[in-house]
Design a protein that fits this description.
Elements (H helix, E strand, L loop, with lengths): L3 E2 L12 E2 L5 E2 L8 E2 L1 H4 L12 H9 L7 H14 L9 H14 L7 H10 L5 E2 L4 H4 L1 H13 L6 H16 L12 E2 L2 H10 L2 H8 L7 H14 L4 H9 L2 H6 L11 H16 L2 H8 L2 H17 L3 H20 L10 H10 L19 H17 L6 H6 L2 H6 L16 H18 L4 H6 L2 H12 L22 H15 L4 H9 L2 H15 L5 H18 L3 H15 L16 H15 L4 H9 L2 H11 L5 H11 L3 H9 L8 H16 L19 H6 L11 H8 L2 H11 L9 H11 L1 H19 L6 H69 L1 H18 L36 H4 L6 E2 L4 E2 L9 H4 L1
Antiparallel strand pairs: 1-4, 2-3, 5-6, 7-8
Helix pairs in contact: 2-3, 2-4, 3-5, 4-7, 5-8, 8-11, 10-12, 11-14, 14-17, 15-17, 16-17, 17-19, 18-19, 19-22, 22-25, 24-25, 25-28, 27-28, 27-29, 28-30, 29-30, 29-31, 30-33, 32-33, 33-38, 35-39, 39-41, 40-41, 41-42
Length: about 950
């Protein structure tokens, strides 16, 4: 505490002694030192706290000699109330709650302790007082234990005490009614500290447990629920502690057991459960509610609010109860909704507006167009979908004709509705919600789907979606995202239902769609998508993906249905193989579209002669190879599988062999490159030339080698067999088998080395399988009989020899490459040498030319050499008698070299002479006279 001091006389020692006039020291005269505190000057605000010695109070109450002095007890308790009217000190909390516990133990025998006890508890709603700034940290644990002790006082069988405890805890946690505290020299705790104390204490758990003591006290029970509602609203710790006390079960199992005409129990219990779901562990809440008692209470509460609630508040509470049931159904698929009869009642409520019912539950029930009733309809449908995970509910759905009521909305949306019906926006939202429910429920109720003529309804709706009629979708709900101002939302869910139904692979469902013309209609829709360029938005990409998937399922393995696709259908499908691969990373679903397109080509085109020929005519094989070269590695397996089945057509090999890639690569080179990349990813042991380096495991990857051979039942495939389907090597081997291993263009030496491995892939795989058999026999400590052992040894020896042979061939290829490189190098050196010799000869010829022009004797010698060469080149024959021999030499010729066929003439450049037409006069048709011009020397100067 700061103080202000005024010193009239000061000395270094306050107790210094003063001397008298006679020189003697007077020890009894002190130095004058006047000190004035803030309190004396009136600068402190607030009241002054005069704490008591509470240990004496505890002793007074506990001492057996003073145990019967009730008047003194009441007097000292009232004195405590007067002294601590602004709150308790944190350092006194231990003594205060000892006093409260002593009073609580005497309430049963001496009821007059109730009044002071209630007043003491009322003082605890104020924040505790700190003397120092560090008191919050120092006495934090004491505060937590004290508040826990306050909650434990709920054991006192006094309504006043329990009511005051609840009120104190609520005020302490929220400080809603806390008066302003100003105490001299003390500071009140912060609200955050109070909340932390409540969260770390056992208050929430204790209040839940105390509900069992309040079975006959409705008013106090409601007060406790108010406190629980406050402490669970934003605190996850409080919610978890309440769940530790089985709060969800304790609150819900007695939801409707009290005569609560105002509905406070139902409302506040539901609100607390909501808080537990939001802030606590949802799965724990659902598990605690997963029993007959809770589901039955929720059902009764819902039906009560449905039949007797007319206000906005009642309808909201009714919907909240259904949402709680939805969360239970989501986390607990086996919740007893069927056993309690709640499921059938919900189904009747969800269908009575579309399907006429005479059940007493819905006979006089009417739902309005207000927001709460609209939400009720959606929540019921959502809950029915969640309950459908239990297959025993399906007969109930069939009896109540749930699917028929949902198909009531599978129709073209109306632009206007009657005044008492849903608004157009609400009707669209209900329509989309019903269709989303059909996506889940229709595959479970196939017979009901056929009875409702579901395929016909869906195809009619699809026709309306792509028709010319204008429709401005509201797009308000989650299901309407991307469809605002159009029919795309309806079309998306229509296609999703069709995809879900075809995914069942039910023959009658697939045949029904085919009979209704689904194949041709979907192909027509795909044409419109490409015509209008609908491929840039996510909803458009998703719809096209669904349509391609539907076609795949409808046409797979059925040649007749593939013929329905025909050439026109192939024209609609081929453009999907030319999708820009840069869009695969856009996040709009183009990667799914590409997968569906390849799968659709595989199922709807490959396998039928007519569609295959049309596909090849449209360069479909080229497009597949382009995708194989440029698409990410995840697409390669599917593309190779499609290409492999297409290769059964003899015409395909010509297309594969004539294809050229981005760098003019051939298909054979591409396949070899993909093989090497796959083995590098698998960690197969190879040398720097891609040759075999591990003779014992020529095909085994690193992961397979680490796992080793583990004995397994005969029905389980071994790792060597599983490897065939896990990578693309088997498909590449099969493609080369159809293309042939010889006369392949565009292969490098590395490709030839890889090709030797591909060619013997089956042999290597056979050896790998036999190796696994041997390892399994050793692991199981089994020895085959002698003939089998000899056969196994022979097979393994043959496989090893095959590996050695392949390695020898690869070595020959490497050696041949080295020899070829050496020959190429020698040819290059020879070319350099010839060029050098040619340069030397040209230089020598020029020197001879200079010599001939400057030395006449050398010129004559050159002429003589020329003539001698000519004579030497002729055949020396003696002329016959009577024949005249004519000389062939031209006399007096000045050329001393042999001329070639071409003559190179060096003349003046045209930029100087002006060219051959420089002197031509086009008007006269004659040449200009030759002019000479000169510049006088004087001008040059």
């Amino acid at each position: 505490m700061a103080t202000e001091t005024i010193q009239l006389n000061s000395s270094t020692n306050p107790t210094s002694m003063m001397k008298t006039f006679d020189g003697q020291t007077n020890k009894n005269v002190p130095v004058v030192n006047h000190t004035f505190t803030d309190e004396e000057l009136g600068l402190l605000k607030g009241t002054k706290l005069e704490p008591l010695n509470l240990s004496k109070v505890v002793k007074l109450l506990k001492d057996p000699h003073s145990a019967m002095l009730y008047d003194r007890h009441l007097h000292i308790l009232r004195k405590i109330l007067r002294h601590y009217k602004n709150g308790f000190l944190m350092k006194d909390l231990v003594q205060v709650f000892k006093i409260l516990n002593l009073c609580a133990d005497r309430v049963d025998t001496q009821p007059f302790y109730v009044e002071p006890m209630v007043e003491l508890i009322a003082l605890c709603d104020r924040p505790f007082l700190n003397e120092r700034a560090s008191d919050e940290l120092t006495f934090e644990q004491i505060s937590i234990e004290s508040i826990s002790q306050l909650a434990y006082l709920m054991r006192v069988p006094s309504k006043e005490v329990r009511e005051q405890i609840c009120k104190t805890l609520q005020n302490f946690y929220t400080q809603e009614e806390t008066r302003k505290q100003e105490v001299q020299g003390h500071k009140a705790n912060r609200l955050e500290f109070n909340k932390k104390v409540i969260e770390e204490s056992d208050v929430a758990e204790t209040l839940i447990k105390s509900l069992t003591l309040l079975e006959n006290d409705l008013e106090t029970r409601i007060t406790v629920l108010k406190v629980l509602q406050k402490v669970s609203k934003t605190s996850a710790k409080n919610c978890n502690k309440m769940l530790n006390a089985n709060a969800a079960y304790n609150l819900t199992s007695r939801l409707m057991d009290f005569n609560d005409h105002e509905g406070q129990i139902l409302f506040r219990s539901t609100e607390i459960i909501w808080n537990l779901l939001e802030n606590g562990d949802t799965s724990i809440v659902a598990n605690q509610l997963n029993n007959f008692e809770c589901i039955g209470q929720l059902r009764d509460g819902f039906l009560t609010q449905l039949n007797h609630g007319y206000s906005h508040y009642d309808r909201q509470l009714r919907n909240d109860l259904l949402v709680v049931c939805s969360l239970i159904a989501e986390h607990c698929p086996n919740a007893p909704f069927i056993e309690t009869g709640f499921c059938k009642q919900l189904t009747l409520l969800g269908t009575f507006q579309e399907v006429k019912s005479y059940n007493a539950l819905v006979k006089h029930l009417k739902l309005g167009t207000n927001h709460e009733d609209f939400e009720l309809k959606k929540i019921i449908l959502n809950l029915l979908v969640l309950i459908s995970r239990d297959s025993s509910v399906l007969p109930i759905y069939t009896d109540t004709r749930l699917l028929l009521s949902l198909f009531h909305y599978v129709r073209p949306s109306e632009k206007e509705t009657l005044p008492r019906e849903w608004t157009p926006a609400q009707l669209e939202e209900i329509q989309l919600h019903a269709m989303s429910c059909l996506v889940t429920l229709s595959p479970l109720l196939l017979d009901d789907f056929m009875l409702c003529q579901g395929s016909t309804r869906l195809l009619l709706l699809l026709e309306w979606c792509v028709g010319p009629e204008n429709y401005n979708g509201a797009g308000n709900s989650l299901h309407g995202v991307g469809g605002r101002g159009s029919k795309k939302s309806q079309m998306r869910y229509c296609l999703r239902i069709m995809r879900a139904m075809t995914a069942t692979n039910s023959d009658k469902i697939l045949q029904d769609f085919v009979d209704q013309g689904a194949i041709g209609q979907i192909l027509g829709v795909l044409d419109k998508f490409w015509l209008y360029g609908w491929i840039k938005e996510e909803i458009d990409v998703c719809m096209q993906t669904d349509m391609l998937s539907i076609l795949s399922v409808l046409c797979e393995g059925e040649v007749h249905r593939q013929e329905i696709v025909g050439q026109e259908g192939v024209k609609s499908l081929v453009p999907y193989l030319t999708v820009d691969l840069g869009t695969l990373q856009s996040g709009l679903g183009h990667h799914q579209l590409l997968v569906s397109a390849v799968d659709c080509i595989w199922a709807a085109v490959v396998g039928c002669q007519i569609t295959e020929d049309a596909f090849l005519e449209l360069e479909g094989a080229y497009h597949l190879l382009d995708l194989l070269e440029n698409a990410p590695s995840g697409f390669r397996n599917m593309i190779l599988g499609c290409l492999l089945d297409l290769a059964d057509n003899p015409k395909t090999s010509v297309h594969i062999n004539s294809w050229r890639g981005n760098r003019d690569d051939t298909a054979a080179h591409l396949f070899c490159e993909l093989w090497r990349q796959e083995e590098a990813q698998m960690g197969v042991s190879r040398d720097d030339k891609a040759g075999v380096s591990d003779f014992q495991k020529p095909l085994m990857g690193s992961l397979q080698a680490e796992r080793g051979t583990i004995p397994a039942p005969a029905i389980c495939p071994s790792p060597a067999i599983v490897d065939i389907s896990e990578n693309i090597r088997a498909k590449i081997y099969a493609l080369f088998c159809k293309m042939g291993f010889g006369e392949l263009a565009g292969l490098t030496t590395e490709d030839h080395i890889t090709l030797t491995i591909i060619e013997h892939y089956l042999d290597f795989k056979l050896g790998e399988v036999w190796g696994e058999i041997v390892q399994e026999l050793k692991a199981e400590d089994l020895r085959p009989v002698t003939p089998d052992r000899e056969a196994i040894e022979a097979i393994c020896r043959i496989c090893d020899d095959r590996v050695q042979h392949v390695r020898a061939v690869q070595n020959q290829l490497v050696e041949a490459e080295k020899q070829q490189d050496s020959m190429d190098e020698q040819e290059y050196f020879n070319e350099i040498r010839d060029n050098q010799r040619q340069k030397e000869k040209a230089l020598k010829d020029f020197e001879e030319y200079i010599t001939r022009t400057s030395n006449y004797s050398y010129l004559r010698e050159a002429k003589w050499k020329q003539e001698s060469s000519i004579d030497a080149s002729r055949i020396q024959l003696k002329p016959k008698a009577g024949e005249t021999q004519h000389p062939t030499n031209i006399k007096n010729i000045g050329c001393t070299t042999f001329g070639g066929k071409n003559v190179q003439v060096h003349s003046t450049p045209q930029d100087i002479t002006g060219g051959p037409l420089a002197r031509y006069d086009p008007l006269e048709g004659t040449l200009y006279p030759r002019r000479t011009s000169f510049t006088p020397i004087s001008e040059l100067a």
